[in-house]
Write a structure and sequence with these properties.
alpha/beta; seven-stranded mixed β-sheet; homodimer
Chain lengths: ~650, ~650
Amino acid sequence: MEQKKYITIDGNEAVSYVAYRVNEVISIYPITPSSSMGEWADEWSAKGIKNMWGTVPTVVEMQSEGGAAGAMHGALQAGTLTTTFTASQGLLLMIPNMFKIAGELTPAVIHVSARTVAAHALSIFGDHSDVMAARATGFGMLASASVQEAMDFALVAQKATMESRVPFLHFFDGFRTSHEVSKIELMSDKVIRSMIDDQLLMEHRNRALSPDHPVLRGTAQNPDVFFQARETVNPHYMACPDLTQKAFDKFAELTGRQYSLFDYVGAKDAERVIVLMGSGCDTAHDTVNYLTEKGEKVGVVKVRMYRPFDVRRFVESLPASVKSVAVLDRTKEPGASGEPLYADCVNALHEGLANRWGQVKTMPRVIGGRYGLSSKEFTPAMIKGVFDHLKEGTLKNHFTIGINDDVTNTSLPYDHGFSTEPDTVRRALFYGLGSDGTVGANKNSIKIIGENTNNYAQGYFVYDSKKAGAVTISHLRFGPNPIQSPYLISKANFVACHQTFFIEKYDMLSNVVDGGTFLLNTPAKQEDVWDTLPVEVQEKIIAKKLKFYVIDAYKVAEETGMGLRINTIMQTCYFAISGVLPKEEAINAIKDAIKKTYGKKGESIVKKNTDAVDQSLANMHEVQVPGKVTSKKHMPKPVSDKAPDYV
Amino acid sequence: MEQKKYITIDGNEAVSYVAYRVNEVISIYPITPSSSMGEWADEWSAKGIKNMWGTVPTVVEMQSEGGAAGAMHGALQAGTLTTTFTASQGLLLMIPNMFKIAGELTPAVIHVSARTVAAHALSIFGDHSDVMAARATGFGMLASASVQEAMDFALVAQKATMESRVPFLHFFDGFRTSHEVSKIELMSDKVIRSMIDDQLLMEHRNRALSPDHPVLRGTAQNPDVFFQARETVNPHYMACPDLTQKAFDKFAELTGRQYSLFDYVGAKDAERVIVLMGSGCDTAHDTVNYLTEKGEKVGVVKVRMYRPFDVRRFVESLPASVKSVAVLDRTKEPGASGEPLYADCVNALHEGLANRWGQVKTMPRVIGGRYGLSSKEFTPAMIKGVFDHLKEGTLKNHFTIGINDDVTNTSLPYDHGFSTEPDTVRRALFYGLGSDGTVGANKNSIKIIGENTNNYAQGYFVYDSKKAGAVTISHLRFGPNPIQSPYLISKANFVACHQTFFIEKYDMLSNVVDGGTFLLNTPAKQEDVWDTLPVEVQEKIIAKKLKFYVIDAYKVAEETGMGLRINTIMQTCYFAISGVLPKEEAINAIKDAIKKTYGKKGESIVKKNTDAVDQSLANMHEVQVPGKVTSKKHMPKPVSDKAPDYV
């Protein structure tokens, strides 16, 4: 194994990084949240960056996702390695070509940042409804749960498809994984190269349609032979799970990161087990660790390969002691006998028990539930809620978790206050205005911490639907271990309010821990600021014993020639008071970053920024919090009393 | 109930007949085998035929199935009753709009002549792979098994969707049902009218997007509310099965034809049960009747409503005595834990037993199998093969039936000679040349018999892939009871060879019963014809003691001024010797039909045709079959010895 090398990137870039290196033709059509995968590939191709074989991949933008899939199908038939990136309705438009690509046993991977399919409303956010709508196509499916896995599985999928000739759809949760910035181990070119078997590539080339060795393919067949011919794919699908596990094993040899088709984590004598896939796996893993330490007999099966569904390995992954199982689907199929992963698990148990596979001897109680539709939060508290329910005498099938369904009463209750966040992780929330530079500065902070320290880092950015001019909330975590918390921060050590007027608009302090820090950008002076706060804010600062800092960032920006750009200033304050890094070290790191970022733009820009850093420190002040509420101003109600009835 | 009225039509026309009457906008894009549904609607609209509300439906042909679905979605949002017809890849292109139509709870029905989705090869023939690929959309699904059911369910689906607001996909087997010509009970306008509730129509109208009562619909939603909003459809899906059963019950009151969401047929103490949907239901029903009469404890569950899948009603449909169940899917999903209907049934049993629904107390052995992909024949012999297998100690899951899979050994064996065809049914096979008028004449014969006698009639026409100039085989059945035999004829009483050269090309006599009749169109004279036959044909005529007739139809056609048109001549011969009708009566009926068909073209055309009828009778001769084989000529091998190796 080589020396580890780290990089701080988001899921889309991680996937694109690999996909670019192992393909020759990349047909794209942008759709949120997959777009940046195609954009990266396009940029790298324009820059002449080469793939594993020393050629620059051809990136072609088509007129629709139907065209992207058609171009992919065509390029594959010409014997090239080809991929595409998509999501949601884009994936739906690829389905006809996917049936063909799979039917013809063509090695290829489609990378999908899984996104809600529009139903009663459109949504750009993440769930598995798009992927599930494509599950009849015959594509293999690998689900990655984190940015690291997204990079890793992008490569494993490529090896698995070349070995088995079953094409793969590799997916990961839209936004939650595609847009989470995380410090991960970078895969070396050597690892990538070692995972590609040239012999298999040659076989793919030799199957190309070519006048040099004419074959007939893609014709019309009639009832006399179609059925027989359709069944000839069976050996490939039967071999695919083994070949994929071998690909995972080979990958583990090269990198030390071992995955299985179904990874069980938890107590050896677990009685209650949750099964799921996607980013929720990390949340469940984390929660299971927390609960088993407290002696609870719980476990989780992380589904990595959803198709082909290896019935035997799934059943074998369950401990003998299991009594009740909840299978969680991040999709909804109205009218089905159950959501798809649940249905597959029940089927697998039925068949596995009939064949005496695995250690489970009698059918456990199995229920299915829905969670996280359209990036609805999915937290350890909800996982615990499900585990708690699995203890009960009567189980509720087809439940929901994470919402309050007071119409059809499908929801399970859970303790909203439950948290597994360890003390070793520092958590910060930043409330900025769309386009005010807050998100960019935070991404920069993550890189600084990720690349200058041994800390792992995670950043997730919540935008309002109107990107520019609305609130953006940055959720940053830093800690000594890889961060397995793909959910929003509810217990922040640090909260920064980058826009003064937010103080009356958003409840920012409910999510701060006692004794945490609150930083406010305000034109009010240190001694006057207290009285500008609404009652609710004063109450929380007092009750939680918060440390309270202020800075007039717009004034500093103006005075240092930065105009309206407050991002560097607020970033400096964060480093100065959060203690994530020793102060000196942090300030130097920011200044280094400034040189890197603005060096090309000239000495004066660099100087303006470094001046701003120094002035930030000089102009930030801690406020002595009075012991009592003095304000007469209340935060406005969500709906004004003056609003007309129909609101 | 009104006086019964019969009509002889194919499945597509039966469906279109109803769909046209209960819709106002029909958006179409033609795709085999659904095309004629749209063509009928287009023709009726052009002729000004009115729907139930006295208006002429607007029929619009779009640029693709995506457009047809989009137009449908738009028209529905304007409060009109809208439908479309499609199949296969066409349906796949409708999936994005189907998610929207269902998500918005819009009453509408899409009629699908279910057809194979292209995989390793394209196929125009029938199976459920298209419908299954759309099962995530939230559409309800009704499956009809015959031409009669296709007409009936087209109406029931309309009522069910208007009652429940769950849109429906109504499907039936492509070609097998869509193109089978059958004598069925015609639905009166009064029945159609009685099934439509004007109040529900007004509610649909009132939900239209309109500036008169502005509402917001089809917007984008974010993680805060999407999940909750998505779950609001639940009450509609929960109510849908009851409402659909009520629609079936109301329909039964009006017509006497009673259906259930799951119809069980068979022994009350059945131990072996088959579950399936589509045209195979009739084959299974027929076979179960045959086997239970012989004392076998078997039964079949016909799935009428596949979505929403009513778990409780499914479990309740099974007899308490059931020990083993085979669920048959007319589709293949490589990589799934099992085919979809099988997976739903296992899930339903799991949940039903947990809730103590129905009479079954312990989980039966359940296996799944595939059959009939791309219109592969599905016969009583195969049904019996599955029942026989269900007796065995070890069951083979994920089996195939109807093919010989000698690679992965999935196939079940069956007795190819087993038949349930009753003696009361007359069965005839006609070998014609594409475009020689054979199929048209046979459709005409079915109408004559269907409309002039109490006999039920069925016609199915097998085309080679190249329509004109290749063989067409017409399969005709006539009998005193409704014909439940949606499979090809293997025991014909009558075989006609309309083209002399076929005698050396096709084995036409393997499927004739002993003592059956063989009619050959040949220029050879009565006394010379024997020696023109190959050895294999002579052997079969002798062994089976066939009655053998000849006519030189081309000579008669030429002499009566018919040119090359032999259809009326061969039809006359069939009626004269088959005994389906008394000869006199039959001849008069043909002449009446000629007057109807050609009356508008003038007296001389009518006379030519009636002359041809008379001359046919004069020129047809029975051949005295010699007791021994005299020929030296053999039928050629399928592949010539002279063919190059690669063939």
